[in-house]
Structures are given as C-alpha cells and as structure tokens.
Amino acid sequence: MRVYAQAAEARVSHLRTHAGEHEVDLIVERGDRRILAIEVKLAATVGDRDVRHLRWLEARIGTDLLDAVVITTGTDAYRRPHGAAVIPAALLGP
Predict the structure, then answer these.
(1) Of 16, 34, 48, 53, which one has the greatest count of Cβ atoms within 10 A?
(2) What separation, in Å, do the N-terminal and C-terminal C-alpha atoms of the chain show?
(3) Which segments within 17-55 are labelled E, that is strand?
C-alpha cells in the first residue's frame, strides 16, 4: 500500500483511538486531507462486525472519506450494502 500511495503522492498511516475502542488498519491520506480507509481481514467473508470501524470513521469525517475497503482472502470483489468495497488480496498484484 505504501508504494501505491507514494505513487499517488499520498501517505499511509494507521488509526487507533486513544482508548483503543476504534482502529483502522490503513489510512491512505491525500494532500487534500481526504482519505481511503482500509481494513485487512484474514477471512474469506466479511460481516457487519468487520466493517464497524470503517462505518464509525465515515460517521466522524463524512465526505472526507473517499472510500472504505476491506481486503480479504476471498475470491469475489463486491460492495457491501452500506458501501464498503470488499477486495480479494489476490486482485492487488501478481
């Protein structure tokens, strides 16, 4: 992710609230401060619990969230009902 972000002149970080109640694995931030939030799951399926922190972040920052993504070990790419993209890790590269 860091290489892709650098090519787009963005930076990658991690988000964890002070008390640890919310955490997002990867935050890709553009120069205009808008972000892509990414969760990485070592599972083939994605449930509501897996996207809860992405939904929390969206509620906090609104339209500054460009997109929310969950990377999985599954085989199908799709969008969840509330909009998060589910992308198999195998689709990200060779």
Answers:
(1) 53
(2) 14
(3) 23-29, 35-40
Token pair belonging to 15: 């988000």
Average pLDDT, the chain: 94
Q: Please list, in sequence order, all residues whose beta carbon lies within 8 angstroms of the beta carbon of residue 56, skipping any fewer than 6 positions away.
A: 22
Q: What are phi and psi of 85, to 5 degrees?
A: -85, 135
Helix, strand, coil shares of the chain, percent, nearest 5, are 30, 35, 35
Which CATH number is 2-92 given?
3.40.1350
Radius of gyration for the chain, computed over Cα atoms and rounded to the nearest angstrom = 13
- Residue-wise pLDDT for 50-83, tens only, equals 999 999 999 999 999 999 999 999 999 999 999 9
pLDDT tier for residue 6 given thresholds of 50, 70 and 90: confident
What span, in angstroms and rounded, lies between the C-alpha atoms of 60 and 51?
14
Mean pLDDT of 6-32: 93
